[in-house]
Amino acid sequence: MSQFDGYKTALDSAVFSFYGDPATIAPGPLNTGKTPVGTVATLDYDDVRDDMSALIATLIYVEYPKAAWPYPRRGDQIALNGKTWTIQRLERDENTTLIVEVTQ
User: Fold this and answer.
1) DSSP structural state of residue 57
2) How far is CA 9 from CA 6, 62, 68, in A?
3) Is 28 helix (H, G, I), strand (E, B) or coil?
4) Which pTM does this prediction carry?
5) 75-86, pLDDT tens digit by residue?
6) Which of 13, 41, 67, 96 has the most beta carbons within 10 angstroms of its beta carbon?
7) C-alpha dist (Å) from residue 18 to 40, 59, 67, 70, 74
8) Residue 61's beta-bridge partner residues?
9) DSSP result, 43-74
10) What gap in Å lies between CA 31 and CA 40, rounded to an integer?
């Protein structure tokens, strides 16, 4: 066990307080009855390559605090950096943050 494990929650919230971009998450057709939420988020790109290093696809991820939108559904909208992204699936739940795969 690392001496820094106890600081993970504090570090996660500190990173989003200083480095996240303003974002608005709105419900899609499968998540009715909710109102849009303002939060902060980060956008990340991940290239998928084959054995010969040829580009197969580029996956786009958005990471945001879990408390802002804890149950994302396919079709929910994230307005970030002047663009609107549509959630395709939940990639990873990091306890304090969620990482979702998005498309434009």
Assistant:
1) E
2) 7, 19, 15
3) coil
4) 0.76
5) 999 999 899 999
6) 41
7) 9, 25, 17, 21, 28
8) 44, 101
9) EEEEEEE-TT--EEEEEEEEEEETTTSSS--T
10) 20
